[in-house]
Amino acid sequence: MSVKSVGAATFDRSDSDITLSQQRRDETTWLAMLHNWWWEIGAAFVSAVCMGLILVILALADGIALDAWKLPIQPNSLISVFTTIGKSSLMVPLAGCLSQLAWQHFASEPRSLDHIRVFDDASRGPWGAMELLVVIGKRGYLARLLAIATVLALGIEPFAQQILEFGNRDVQHAVKSVEIAAATTYQSRAFRNDELSVPRRHTGQ
């Protein structure tokens, strides 16, 4: 128990009250974070769902023939769609975190004002992310990690197209005899022998 004396009045505050007050502050902090970052959290959730759906498609398509696929959309098309949605959703929290890290970058020590532009460009795409890796150097390991993730995101879609492979394989048929149709003669309607006529050569006297 803690006792505080102010003038002639004395206030007693138990440890349980302090703990309850701390819990309320923590709850308020979490609610404020969810309110401010709901868009980024939702985008990260959508990206995780898309990655999970890709794993489900790969599990369903593994070891089966392409003709046995029952859905009207081919597995490659589904993977391409979910990869595009997942990548676009993943870039939303990456951009938001890079923009927020710009203020932390300036809070530690005085920096050049041009670093604001560098962080802003890094949140917009891979080219700005590569510039951030060059400018800030070894400082800001979290910002460098997010910048590397932004650059590596360029290879998500090309590599996703190489996940599925439909190769040829030899299958032994139970029937031993095989018949193959073959054409021995060909007759065209545009060219008939009975319609051919050789013109006669006339000689004059």
From TrEMBL:
Keywords: Membrane, Transmembrane, Transmembrane helix. The chain crosses the membrane at residues 41-66. PANTHER family: DUF3176 DOMAIN-CONTAINING PROTEIN. This is Uncharacterized protein.
